[in-house]
Hints:
Elements: H1 2-31, H2 42-46, E1 54-59, E2 68-73, E3 81-87, H3 94-97, H4 101-106, E4 110-115, H5 124-140, E5 148-158, H6 160-171, E6 177-181, E7 199-204, H7 212-221, E8 228-233, H8 246-260, E9 279-284, E10 318-328, E11 331-340, E12 345-346, E13 349-353, E14 359-364, E15 367-371, E16 374-378, E17 385-386, E18 391-399, E19 408-410
Parallel strand pairs: 3-4, 3-5, 5-6, 6-7, 7-8
Antiparallel strand pairs: 1-2, 2-4, 8-9, 10-11, 11-18, 12-17, 13-16, 13-19, 14-18, 15-16
Amino acid sequence: MRQPTRWLATALAVVLGLAVATTTRDAAVADSPYQRGPDPTPASVAATRGPFATTQATVPAGNGFNGGYVYYPTDTSQGTWGAVAIVPGYSALFANEEAWMGPWLASFGFVVIGIETNSRTDGADARATQLLAALDYLTRTSPIRNRVDANRLGVMGHSAGGAGTLLAALRRPTLKAAVGLAPGTPGNNLNMSTTQVPTMLLSGQNDGTVTPSYVQGIYNTLPAGVEHAWAELAGNDHLSFTRPNATEMRLLIPWLKTFLDNDTRYTQFLCPLADSTGVSRYNATCPLVPPDGPTAPPTSTPPTTGTPTTPPPSGAPCTATYRTVNAWSGGFQGEVTVTAGTAAINGWTVRWEQNNGQSISQVWSGTLSTSGSTATVRNVSYNGSLAAGAATSFGFLSSGTPATTSPTCASP
Length: 412
């Protein structure tokens, strides 16, 4: 009787263990509706391809940047995907230096848009503007916009593109992740003390262009209340990030999974660093908790540039509608949607009165001028021409507190 009893006890333990494991796994999955793919392992994170088949398409020039490429999973059964926009460094082409990252990241469950800049000599500020324009295109007018979760977006770039990435994060606090690859901008130390976006910095130990001390200076300005990490890759130089780099991806994928997908299954690889091979220095604000947790999918689709929507009242060339995107102590992010009337327009001008101590510090997808308390924003080159009933939008950061705003619209 002893042996059957022992067998029964063992079987019950196995069953109970499986039940507990299943319950634990189901509970973990329930923690975030955005988890994609099987439970990760050290081998899977280090693999050159993830569990999802991918495809890619060419993005035409226009929409605020000079075209590029989009990579995404072919699976349509998983719901929407988080997305990241990537911009190359000064004088570089994405097609030559970062295209290797597209299918690699997409196979782990992300939509990736890699952009070419309007000019290869564009500075960090222009690259920031184009990164945000690329995300707006991806989520509003691209053929795959229905595959992308507009609430789970990130930015990444190399060198001047890395500096542009950090500037984009300052401009758009609703981003979920930013990754600067050897982020540098000539003659300027980037101050990230006001960022609200979880930020990872990756640099090369032997980088003589964006030196480790320069990157440390940026890292030291990141606020304690925002998750951040810095990894220095052993023996890497400035151009190491422009070639397939397994060490880089072993760090990058868990970061994006954690903050774009709220997938805490991946924090085990970063806190503490699970594999220090090829890493000469590592710092992180462990335990790396996604700041917002799971969020409900959006209940409505953002306005679509160039696509007919509900037109303004008869006779008006255009209307402007304001919404507060995000707010924090001492500041907020706003967005204004411009909709053409019953006839096409070629150029638009939006005006409103600032109050409650408001003072706009940054605008994207528009050109700002102020006179007293009146703020005026005019279209930029790529979003001024709207078909009848079509819409576009611009965003801004302001000090002060949000208040009811009733902007007016005129053309031009």
